[in-house]
Amino acid sequence: MLAYNEAMKREIMIGSVGIGGSHPVSVQTMTKVPLNRIQSTLNQIGRIADAGAELVRIGIPDRNTLKAFTRIVRESPLPVIADIHFDGDLALYAMEAGAAALRINPGNIGGNEKLKEILRVAGRQCVPIRIGANSGSLEKKYAQDDSLNRSERLVRSVLDRIRFCEDQGFTLLKISLKSSSVLETIEAYRMIDRACDYPLHVGITESGPGLPGIVKSVLGIGVLLEQGIGNTIRVSLTASPEEEVRVAREILAGLDLRRRGIELVACPTCSRTSIDLIGQVRRFQKMLGDRHFDRSLKVAIMGCEVNGPGEAADADIGVAFSKGKAYLFQRGEKMERVAKEDAMDILVQKINTWMEENE
């Protein structure tokens, strides 16, 4: 049984999205177009929201982009987290523009006095701040401490930063510790989870492109979530933010933490398969497109009667192909026999009807 939320974390609110407490694990990502391209950014946020993200982070590179950021915050369908580095005044401007939260690195934000000012304003406006440490940007006293492994260095660094914020009376914190190493990240989050009760932002940083990046993210985030560690996640890929969100959603669905939209199951095929099942599955995905909805539906596409209604008995609806015909079934019970060439069209039609009735 999953241990998620067994040890309750503090609650913070980022716009209307709750993090920690009894709230479900939320999904976030980051825009990847230049901020001054306002409409392109808003269009990307729209696609991100459609894919299932609940929060979006936007990097503010300099003061010349603040006007664009202000408009984007105003028109965004998702709460916006401002990502700030090097210029602490940008954090102040971002809060004035209506940012729902901040992501800052206390070590590069302009010194302790500027950090204190940011914390004062954020506390007054009830703006949560994500702080943390990255294995590539540790302060010297930890980076050069050979008595600690890299996970311990990350945790010590973050605990120092937490104490600084608490000394200023600021506790609207979200914590992250990131490494491109899956094992280092898992170890570090296990330690910080025991050491503090602030909500945790979980991800594998710089995980890379394609399949290797997805595998690293699924392993790192999945292991932690299964152990009850993590309140919000971001899959960091060298890919579109929509792809990041889709992978994050699959992680949550695979762990039965949150399900949304269609869960597709299909057999791996074997010598009994009498059709191009891989092609049929691809056709199904293309026909459904990127439609999303809040309720979940489990759909099965099976290559033979052996792996048909029996093996996929828990599917809400499915199709199994035999040598001569195809069978539509629901919850393991055959509904009707149809021609193989019509099966996918009929399946998609029934799913579309279900969507319309349940939206």
Written overview of the protein:
The chain is of the alpha/beta class and 359 residues long. It has 2 domains: 12-254, TIM Barrel (Alpha-Beta Barrel); 262-358, Sulfite Reductase Hemoprotein, domain 1, CATH 3.30.413.10. It is 41% helix and 19% strand. The protein has helices at 38-51, 66-75, 88-97, 112-125, 140-143, 150-167, 182-195, 210-226, 241-254, 277-288, 340-358, and strands at residues 12-14, 17-19, 26-30, 55-59, 80-84, 101-104, 129-134, 173-178, 201-202, 232-233, 261-266, 296-302, 317-321, 326-330, 333-338. The strands form 3 sheets. Strands 8-7-6-5-4-3-10-9 form an 8-stranded parallel beta sheet. Strands 11-12-13-14-15 form a 5-stranded mixed beta sheet. A two-stranded antiparallel ribbon has the order 1-2. Helix 4 links the parallel strand 6 (101-104) and strand 7. Helix 10 runs parallel beside helix 11 (340-358). The model is unreliable at 1-6 (pLDDT under 50).
Radius of gyration: 23 Å
C-alpha geometry: elongated
- Write the CATH homologous superfamily of the largest domain: Dihydropteroate synthase-like
What is the annotated CATH architecture of the largest domain? Alpha-Beta Barrel
Q: How many extended strands? A: 15
Order of helices and strands: EEEHEHEHEHEHHEHEHEHEHEEEEH
Residue fraction in strands: 15-25%
Structural class: alpha/beta
Helix proportion range: 40-55%
CATH class of the largest domain: Alpha Beta
Q: List low-confidence stretches.
A: 1-6
Query: Ends: how far apart?
Result: 31 Å
**What does the main sheet amount to?**
8 strands, parallel
> What count of domains describes the coordinates?
2
The strand order across the widest sheet is: 8-7-6-5-4-3-10-9
Q: For the residues shown, what is the average pLDDT?
A: 90
Report the CATH topology name of the largest domain: TIM Barrel
Number of helices: 11
